[in-house]
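# step 3/5: fold
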Amino acid sequence: MRGLRVALLLSAVLPLGAQDAGNWFLDVHSVTGTLTGHYVGTQGGEPWNVDLQNDLGLGSTGNKLGLGVEYQGPRFGLELSADEQTFIGANAISRDILIDGEAFGAGGTVNSRVKAITSVLNWTIRVFTSPEWWVGIDLGVRDVAVNIRAQGPVAAGGGGSALTGIVPGLNGSVAWSGTVPLPVLGLSGGLDLWENSLVLRGYFHTLENAGAHYNVAGADLRYFPTLHVGARIFANSSKLSIPVGSIKSDIDLALGQTAAGLGVVARY
């Protein structure tokens, strides 16, 4: 995965030297959002059966800082960004659940903490351009690193589909980390208005393979009251679905994520 990122970064950076004048952007932003989804089946040799909202009741812990750096030129663009979202839950579960082989029993309260770090490397090839607007093709990779921690009363009998209940006085805990790398493939477009004082970008990325699919849509608005410093507001939404029998034969995985934020951006 790291080798793929390096190769994509090099392929994106090399053409920049051949461009005419462009702009670099550096921004610091505050981001918040939601996380939904489920894991059902076997992953990494361990059984799973958990819904992030219905079972864990996850809620956002509030705004987190994110970073982004971009180059936007007349023919190419390069974007690198990283955002972190953290969610916590304290939910009395109504059924037995399984997280990486650990079984928590119905009727017990499970305390959980989930961190999702989203990293994006995106190269934009501008296909159609004018002084005020452009349309391009996006290529790259979007990686979501998920860390799940949970603790609570263990299930009697090791967990299952029936409401077996808990083992009194016996608690269990689990910590699991994994990544979901997704290729970036789609369209984007932008407007540069009022002599580049107002910069707007929108994008839609999608991919389907063997019954699995995902899509990401977002919008980004930047206002520059001065030449070099401005404000940024943005929002995006992503959905991933990997049913049993698609690209994986032993797990049904779904992940939905939204993010919205405000930031300060420097342009030079």
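# step 4/5: annotate
The longest helix spans residues 2-13.
# step 5/5: archive (pending)
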